[in-house]
Amino acid sequence: MIWLTWRQFRGSAVMMAAVLGVLAAVLAVTGPGLASGYASGIAACAQDGSCGRFYDRFFDTYQLPFMALTLVVLLLPALAGLFWGAPLITRELEAGTHLLVWNQSITRARWLTVKLGLVGLVTVAATGLCGLMVTWWSDPLDKSAADGLGLMAPLVFGARGIAPMGYAAFAFVLGVTVGMLVRRMLPAMALTLALFAVVQLAMPMLVRPHLMSPVTASFELGQANVDGIGMDRDEGGAVHVMLRSAVPGHAGAWVLSSELVDPSGRTAGAEGTVGVSTTSGPCAPSGGMDTCVAEINRLGYRQQATYHPLDRFWPFQWIETGIYVLLTAGLAWFSFWWTRRRLS
Amino acid sequence: MTSVLQAQELGKKYGKRWALRECTVDIPAGHVVGLVGPNGAGKTTLLKLAAGQLEPTAGAITVLGGRPAGGPAQLAKVGFVAQDTPVYSGLTVAEHLRLGTRLNPRWDAGLARERIARLGLPSGHRAGKLSGGQRAQLALTLGLAKRPELLILDEPVASLDPLARREFLQGLMEATVEHEFSVVLSSHLVADLERVCDFLIVLVDSRVQVAGEVDRLLSTHHRLTGPRRDPARLPAGQQVISARHTDRQSTFVIRTDAPIHDPAWTVTRLDLEDLVLAYMDRYVADDRRPVLEVRR
């Protein structure tokens, strides 16, 4: 059975190996240069304290490959579910060859075990390898990424570490199960893609924020969390404070909410308005932004943020991968049950 | 004599429709069994139940003393060639034989190679490029080389031209003589079965109408032609299978173990096709009976 499964699968496996090989070669050649560029840049900026600007410049230079690689790792599980998972059983059902193979001297359970096991293992290995290679390559960029693109950012989190393996296993088994139920290849592929997309959107939006209880804390306003201020010169004046999705002292944190609260504790939104004179005093046009922010701080305004700090990256990776492994196991169990009881 | 297949009150339901119901048959070993009936009569369902591809909804089925597809040992004893003789179109003929070797402990590699060579199947060709007849022969070879005790074939010749049909059935016959196994094959054409079968099951409208050895069936069924008569007035031992009436004449197909003495009848022998048609006719006649009574 292993021979047959491999014979049916070897074409796409070889193709995948070739693509991964090329990717690995490109990353292996460019990775060390990227790392040394980062190291020398950090050494230089540490002396004159201009590391903020170095981060921005460094990240901007490599933003395109960074985004492209992230996208590749995000898409790979979906592709595995679509092109390896959905056709695995459906192709046999459409051609009627399941009747041929089910009547050799092996049980259906064994047949499905080998098919799911072998192809599933290759899927997880390929995606895992790709994910870990990209994680390694992107390490300097992840350290210097802008607010919304750090390791904990929803878009990037799913393309780093071990989570892609969980996604791939789930997408693959999802494709197999949907294919078994739908029995036709193209509808099965479409449905697999739709379901997987829903799960992948629901995870970061609805589930991941609650994997651990987020930290809520108040922070003084400063350069780290104020994006800018806007002056309103009509009607005696007011200052609009625009907050960043960042908290001071916790670089790379995943900020779920960031709001301005006034001295009485009422929230005023991410773009809060502060009633302070803009014609004279610290917030007058002659003063700089820093003095105005200091004045707003003195009046008692604070940033109230809910966030997950960066050091939760690995706990989150393990928990999320575990959730996907459970989903995968559930679907696999169902597909065995369905093959034994219902499929014909 | 041992049975290859025993079914008691066997039934299979798809949704609300019974594809097969109240099927009770006992097929003794050592026969080539023809399963005949119109399209949609439940032939494929019965064969799939026997091969373990389907689970029964009602009743029980035993094949060679075991539950169909109950485990590797049971699977090894029963060969099944599905309708349209599916093969892997991407695999070559040689790879199909390799598949057989890998997946069957009792695989007879010599038989498979010899058959492929004798049929002239190009072993390097992909199965997708073979003709319908060649594909059917390849599927049959896979079934035979497994060395089953029972080989089940579902409409194996349906898609073949007359010449390929004859070759296929001939190959099957030679194999049964050589290796002594039982065969159950289905067809909606009696002519296909007439040459090869010595046991017949007629399946109409998801029910078994008659089952038995062909010789015995032919010797106990007769066509009676004579003056018009009500079927109810026939002797008790004569079971009417089908009846046709004109204004003055009645034609009955009856089943009886006793000789027919009534001089009013002209008695003719039936051939297999007449017999099968009589049973199919009966089913149609059952539907029409109320109409006939109104006319009288």
From TrEMBL, chain A:
<keyword id="KW-0812">Transmembrane</keyword>
<feature type="transmembrane region" description="Helical">
    <location>
        <begin position="157"/>
        <end position="181"/>
    </location>
</feature>
<keyword id="KW-1133">Transmembrane helix</keyword>
<feature type="transmembrane region" description="Helical">
    <location>
        <begin position="188"/>
        <end position="207"/>
    </location>
</feature>
<feature type="transmembrane region" description="Helical">
    <location>
        <begin position="316"/>
        <end position="338"/>
    </location>
</feature>
<protein>
    <submittedName>
        <fullName>ABC transporter permease</fullName>
    </submittedName>
</protein>
<feature type="transmembrane region" description="Helical">
    <location>
        <begin position="116"/>
        <end position="137"/>
    </location>
</feature>
<feature type="transmembrane region" description="Helical">
    <location>
        <begin position="62"/>
        <end position="84"/>
    </location>
</feature>
<keyword id="KW-0472">Membrane</keyword>
From TrEMBL, chain B:
<dbReference type="GO" id="GO:0005524">
    <property type="term" value="F:ATP binding"/>
</dbReference>
<protein>
    <submittedName>
        <fullName>ABC transporter ATP-binding protein</fullName>
    </submittedName>
</protein>
<keyword id="KW-0813">Transport</keyword>
<dbReference type="Pfam" id="PF00005">
    <property type="entry name" value="ABC_tran"/>
</dbReference>
<keyword id="KW-0067">ATP-binding</keyword>
<dbReference type="InterPro" id="IPR003593">
    <property type="entry name" value="AAA+_ATPase"/>
</dbReference>
<dbReference type="InterPro" id="IPR051782">
    <property type="entry name" value="ABC_Transporter_VariousFunc"/>
</dbReference>
<keyword id="KW-0547">Nucleotide-binding</keyword>
<dbReference type="InterPro" id="IPR003439">
    <property type="entry name" value="ABC_transporter-like_ATP-bd"/>
</dbReference>
<feature type="domain" description="ABC transporter">
    <location>
        <begin position="5"/>
        <end position="230"/>
    </location>
</feature>
